[in-house]
């Protein structure tokens, strides 16, 4: 990318467009310059591939625009001095442009459909914060997906107008750290919005995804659901407000009042307006006041939601029969279930899942907290599981594995918010593996299961017999977290050679176990180097614990370095130069700089380790120059 010092994002992008390869002419007989051929090529290419293709020449760039503008994203900022996106008035000028001079990037001919607005003060009063009324009038009808973050609507009227007058074709709305300023009627009359030429407020029948995170003030749920009758995905996290007539979910709210309000409104609208709800995703796991309790059963039974994804906090007063009833209402459609419960006083709900309910469609299951602690005897009821996470608590070993484990964002938030309380284990609980009746499962094979994560302070080292039973039961695992000693580790390395992620916690494997070099054996025993496809290895230890084994010269040279596909590890290394030379240590830290900690002191130093509360949005919201922010739209 050429550098234009002192220029804006638009200036830099315009300079780059002049450097594109020359146009060879439309009447060229080369088939790779034929419009039909190119459109076919771009139809099957990913957004990242198309971003490369369009650098070939100007014809390729122009032919790529319909696909990349309809599927990609543009990030707009409200100030021309911000460098993290395209100034929205520059984009608006392009949309209004009538020729190549005024619209060099063809925004008018090929507008974007997916918008990210960041750090906006959204006001539709002309001249208040730029030409926003014109922007929403011209660009709103084109919007298919809209993400608004770190922003504020000037008033409730601005919120209503922007989202229910100008975006009739919106399919997905995501609000993050965005608020609506509150003012009493007549308080701000001198700055009223002139909407005489705007379309009337209407129901947005196209909207299917509503995702609200850490928003302070928003209109009531009745207001939302009445205008979004076709919603299929509903996610809310950490709503806090105390304004009358608005969403109410302070931290002190409990016993599921917020969830009850949502379900009641949906039931009333279904009765009075004839709405047939098609909600497929309900994620209120981190919504204050949305705990599931017994009294919600009647509402779930009445609505009969075709849920395929359910993420829920099971409340203190929920009983096993109520949880069973909830599962029965969506047993035929449920594919993903994430449930958390901290109260462990009810033995039946703690260890009874799924209470005899057959969940044939379920492919992802995550049960966390001290109050949900089943053994593996339920597996016959979930024959098509692909991912199974049973986490009594979320320790640092699991958090360190990060994106190598499914649902790491959810697990990180649970750990960060310390939803699991206390330092004791579950009341009278045995370990998940130790309490499983393996003889009763001898005829079962979970061939679809690719991930097994078992985490908890009560967990013990699994015997080699139990590990062998798991190998037979789950032969195709690719991701595993389990407590292991030498014998179990050898069975793991021999029985699951296809493993890509292995986290051992508790970790009681010594140097002989890691390398397989036992002086009492003539042949090398199964060891870590047998896992040739391993991408991540975690020698589990809690931050304030002391591991039984550190990496040494022998284990690094004979177990770690032979793994050509290894991308990251979490481990301790010996500070004693007699056990690990400076040269080997430097090579180790050079290859794996982010996930090594030093073991010369009791409290370990985590190089490059980010606390679970620091969210990483690079996969979704990173954007440098506006011309390069296009990315795959995450249709849900």
UniProtKB/TrEMBL annotation:
The record's section on InterPro entries has: LRR_dom_sf
Q: Where is the composition biased (Acidic residues)?
A: 614-636
Instruction: Specify where the region named Disordered lies, as residue ranges.
Output: 1-29, 611-636
**Protein name in the entry:** Uncharacterized protein
Which species is listed as the source? Orchesella cincta (Springtail)
Q: What taxonomic lineage is listed for the species of origin?
A: Eukaryota, Metazoa, Ecdysozoa, Arthropoda, Hexapoda
């Amino acid at each position: 990318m050429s550098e234009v010092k002192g220029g804006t994002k638009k200036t830099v992008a315009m300079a780059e467009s002049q450097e594109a390869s020359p146009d060879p002419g439309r009447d060229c007989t080369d088939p790779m310059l034929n419009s039909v051929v190119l459109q076919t090529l771009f139809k099957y290419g990913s957004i990242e591939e198309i971003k490369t293709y369009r650098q070939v020449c100007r014809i390729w760039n122009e032919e790529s625009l319909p696909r990349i503008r309809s599927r990609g994203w543009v990030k707009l900022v409200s100030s021309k001095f911000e460098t993290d996106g395209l100034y929205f008035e520059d984009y608006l000028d392009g949309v209004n442009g009538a020729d190549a001079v005024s619209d060099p990037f063809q925004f008018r001919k090929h507008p974007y459909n997916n918008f990210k607005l960041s750090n906006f003060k959204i006001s539709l009063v002309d001249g208040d914060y730029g030409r926003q009324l014109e922007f929403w009038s011209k660009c709103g009808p084109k919007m298919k997906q809209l993400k608004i973050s770190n922003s504020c609507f000037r008033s409730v009227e601005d919120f209503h107008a922007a989202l229910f007058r100008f975006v009739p074709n919106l399919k997905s709305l995501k609000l993050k750290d965005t608020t609506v300023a509150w003012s009493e009627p007549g308080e701000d009359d001198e700055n009223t919005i002139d909407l005489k030429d705007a379309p009337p407020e209407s129901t947005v029948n196209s909207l299917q995804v509503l995702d609200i995170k850490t928003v302070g003030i928003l209109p009531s749920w009745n207001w939302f659901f009445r205008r979004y009758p076709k919603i299929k995905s509903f996610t809310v996290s950490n709503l806090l407000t105390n304004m009358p007539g608005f969403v109410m979910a302070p931290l002190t709210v409990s016993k599921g009042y917020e969830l009850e309000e949502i379900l009641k409104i949906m039931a009333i609208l279904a009765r009075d307006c004839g709405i047939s709800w098609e909600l497929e995703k309900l994620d209120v796991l981190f919504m204050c006041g949305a705990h599931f309790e017994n009294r919600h059963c009647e509402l779930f039974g009445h609505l009969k939601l075709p849920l395929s994804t359910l993420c829920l906090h099971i409340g203190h007063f929920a009983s096993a029969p109520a949880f069973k009833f909830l599962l029965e209402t969506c047993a035929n459609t449920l594919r993903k279930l994430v449930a958390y419960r901290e109260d462990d006083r009810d033995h039946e709900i703690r260890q009874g899942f799924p209470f005899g309910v057959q969940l044939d469609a379920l492919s992802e299951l995550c049960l966390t907290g001290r109050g949900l602690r089943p053994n593996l005897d339920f597996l016959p009821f979930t024959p098509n599981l692909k991912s199974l996470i049973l986490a009594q608590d979320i320790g640092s070993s699991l958090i360190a594995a990060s994106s190598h484990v499914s649902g790491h964002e959810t697990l990180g938030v649970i750990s960060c918010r310390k939803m699991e309380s206390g330092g004791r284990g579950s009341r009278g609980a045995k370990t998940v593996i130790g309490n499983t009746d393996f003889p009763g499962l001898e005829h079962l094979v979970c061939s679809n299961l690719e991930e097994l994560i078992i985490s908890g302070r009560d967990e013990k080292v699994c015997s080699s017999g139990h590990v062998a039973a798991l190998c037979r039961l789950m032969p195709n695992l690719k991701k595993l977290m389990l407590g292991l000693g030498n014998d179990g580790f050898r069975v793991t390395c021999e029985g699951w050679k296809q493993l890509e992620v292995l986290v051992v916690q508790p970790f009681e494997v010594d140097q002989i176990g890691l390398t397989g070099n036992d002086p009492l054996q003539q042949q090398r025993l199964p060891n870590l180097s047998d896992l040739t496809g391993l991408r991540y290895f975690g020698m589990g230890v809690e931050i304030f614990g002391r591991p039984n084994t550190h990496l040494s010269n022998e284990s690094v040279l004979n177990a770690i370095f032979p793994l050509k596909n290894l991308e990251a590890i979490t481990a301790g290394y010996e500070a004693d130069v007699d056990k690990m030379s400076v040269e080997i240590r430097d090579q180790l830290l050079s290859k794996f700089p982010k996930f090594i900690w030093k073991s010369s002191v009791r409290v370990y130093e985590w190089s490059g380790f980010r606390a679970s509360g620091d969210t990483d949005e690079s996969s979704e919201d990173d954007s440098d120059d506006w011309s390069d922010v296009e990315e795959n739209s995450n249709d849900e």
